Amino acid sequence: MTNQIVRWASLGLLLAGCAGAPVPARKMAAAQAAIRASEEAGAQAQPQARLQIRIAEEELRSARVLIRRGDNERAEHLLAKAEVDAELARSIARQDQAHAEAQRAQNLLRGIRGGR
Disulfide check for 66: which of 14, 75, 80, 90 has CB 3.0–4.6 Å away? Predict the structure, then answer.
């Protein structure tokens, strides 16, 4: 009888441990996609954006460690932060590119006006 109680209690503990937050696979994919998108947007060429990518990559690595340890809830929050940081890197890169394009257009306009 005591062995049965111990078995049922052990099974209960095992199931309770498995009932935690699920592995945040979608958040992981979203964070990875955001990092790739920021790199494709040229974020590596801009120092501030490059820093944000590094931060996002470190958060992604830390989230993987948390998942291996079974701390999926904290991993999910960290993956959300990684996604936001990667999106920030992408926005910085786009802003930098837009500024450079505007500068080229102004220089072209000055050249046209100066050629009169």
Answer: 75
Residues 46/96, Cβ–Cβ less than 8 Å? yes
- Distance in angstroms (rounded) separating the CA atoms of residues 79 and 104: 38
Three-class DSSP category at 60: helix
Mapping DSSP to helix (H, G, I), strand (E, B) and coil, where does residue 24 land? coil
Rg of the chain over Cα atoms, rounded to whole angstroms, equals 24
User: Are 90 and 38 spatial neighbours (Cβ–Cβ below 8 Å)?
Assistant: yes
Q: How far apart are CA 46 and CA 113, in angstroms?
A: 32
Q: Between the CA of residue 21 and those of 43, 49, 75, what are the distances in Å?
A: 33, 32, 10
Cα-based angle 52, 57, 59 (whole degrees, multiple of 5): 95
